[in-house]
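Lecture notes, unit on protein representations.

Consider one protein chain, 784 amino acids long.
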Amino acid sequence: MQASTVFRMCRVTALTAIGVLAGPALASTGDTVLEEIVVTATKRTESLQDVPISVGVVSGQLIEKLDITDLQDIQGFVPNLTVQRTFGNWAVRIRGLGSGVTNLAFDSSVSIFNDGVYCGRSRCLETAFLDPARIEVARGPQGALFGKSTIAGAVNVVSARPTADFESYVRGGLEFEDGGHTMSAMVSGPLSDTVRGRLAAEYKDLDGWMSNPYGQDDEPATTSYGARGSLEWDVSPESMLYLKVETFESETDGRSNQLVSPGLFGGLTADPEPEFRRDSTRRVSTGTGQEGFDDSESTSVAVQFDTTVADHTLTAIASHWALEYENYLDVDGVPENFLNTTLSEDYDQQSLEVRLLSPTGQRLEYIAGALYHTSDTKTRQHSPFGFFPAFLAPVPVGGDRNFERDSDTFSVYAQATWNIDDRWRLIMDARYTDEEQDGKGFSFPASYPDLINPVYDPTAFGQPPEYLFYQTYKNDSFDPSVRLQYDWTDAVMVYAAVSTGSKPGGLKANDGNLGAQLLARDDSDYYQRFVGQPTVTPADLIDGLTLKQGNGVFDFEDEEATNYEIGAKAVFANGRATLNAAVFAMTFDNLQTSSYDGTQFIIQNAASAEVRGFEVEGMWQVSDALRLSGSVGHANAEYDDFMGAQCIVADRDGNFRDPDCVDGQENLGGERLERSPEWEANLSADWQARIGERLMLLANVSMYYSGDYDVRQDFHPLGRQSSFTKWDTRVALMNPEAGWEVAFLGRNLTDERIIQHAYEVAGSNFVAESRGRMLNLEFIYRFR
């Protein structure tokens, strides 16, 4: 079936669904109430309506129903959450705030948790869509209870648990717009009177959405698989053991970056038909015989033990997580071998958390816990330059940049809830964290005889000085918060909160210019203080130097945030409607930023930033057949003061807005943060009706709107994403008794191509876009 025909069918289906939603569904009895949404954002299992925190929830049923397979799609259902894919990691932001993307050593300012286990890398979210129970997004600093690096917020993926009754399904889907197929299966149920098990697996093979006459025809094409096995064992009437093992692997062939404005590389290409514009054709090749790719894999094991001790709940969680990836990218954007780069990371972590929860329903309730977390990170980036004249570099030359970090973190935390009376509650919590990082960074010149693999070459032309740095970075922090909660009525709760968060400073990776930057200091007092000797020479850099904390060359400082929030959560219409809202103001000090100015990485601390805004989320069970939901998010995120930032680019030719901008740097005070739309909104409708005695017809229509934002920190027009609206629809026919379901799903019907990453190299400007429209036909069979 042709994609255009399928699209017309999908569009007609969407319009039909809208008409049906407004019609006979409204005539139903309206006795159905909304099911309770439970979250664990406070370390306890509580109703979302009772938690005095702004939390967005995406249910596992919604993820399954809309076949959500990508982090970018989650933002359409959680206001003030923005997710984009960059060449190294995911750029995850909440309320406009998140970590920079060019420093491979950055831990995410939006911390990632999987069943309560922290992971310091954003790629840990790639297992989020394998049989989830729900995804919780806690907005604002969560340092007291979530802990490590939750300065902007936290994303917690909750896996579906084994069930007491037998459940099983198989699912298959075909994608028509670009081509591909998906398969998944799950089985869950009792293994004995005291043991329950669950096994889930998925496989995806999706063709790319861009053609390339110099590479493969469909780029980027992705093949991935994942599996998770879990067991619950009732050790005794008071104790339960939960074991989870999961693995994930993904292989992507080809990339989506395009050269949209030629600089150096556009002037060198011999391509007879260069296309310097955003479209679905890439005229790109690495020129080495090995085309671009992005491969990653991860394995994790978690064990949780819960028991009752004197009416208290004692929980211990031990985990291990290993993650590695490697990718290869054509950076010049043309068919010739001018500049390619390879990024890789090997990361593993272990953690142990123990906490004690008091019984509830008392005047004073409390939580106390401790966490130990250790991780090892190794990153590498090497880039061969192949455009030098042969008499200067007969083979490509470049730099090999390496970074290693061992990190140990210990923290203790506590929460006390004072139930003043039946309606008033005062909640106070705090966490103390101590962290030590031992880092090693080294960069050396190399040549590339086979065009891909580096060979150490101290005579390589045009490379910055070789260096070897060692440093220990220590940080401790105290993050308190206080919340006052009032039950206005039995159905309306309001709260006011002041919460804090912090993210430790750290060390810089993948920057080959650090040696040159240290030499450029040329200050004997500085050298004596941070290096321990009055001078530094290129020979010293090669022999290795141990730097002291605060040097500003190899390290960057910690950042802090304070959030002021007022919110309300209400249930209306006898349980058939909910409305949650929050208004907030956040201030950030020493905001960690990173960017690339076309020749070097700029990793530093902005002096301060401020975000003000609100979130409103609602759901209404209009009738037995019809449910409406929607959300609106507003975040005005601005730098208060940011000296030394890249100059703002005013036009496509790269001219600065301020002609007097000195050395390519200026103060970004008053400018909006990159990757932060001011407005986001979502509307969706779900409808169902019985056809005859056995069949059910289900329809869903949803819309997501995002305001414009800049992807690049220099605000170059070619990196500006204009406002856009995405439409999704799903129509399914099912037989609940027989267990089968057939569904037609259209994602991003208007085929919006969203900028995920944008950058400049040697005057050439590049844009990488996300996948556009997807049209799927799915079949699900649930075993009885």
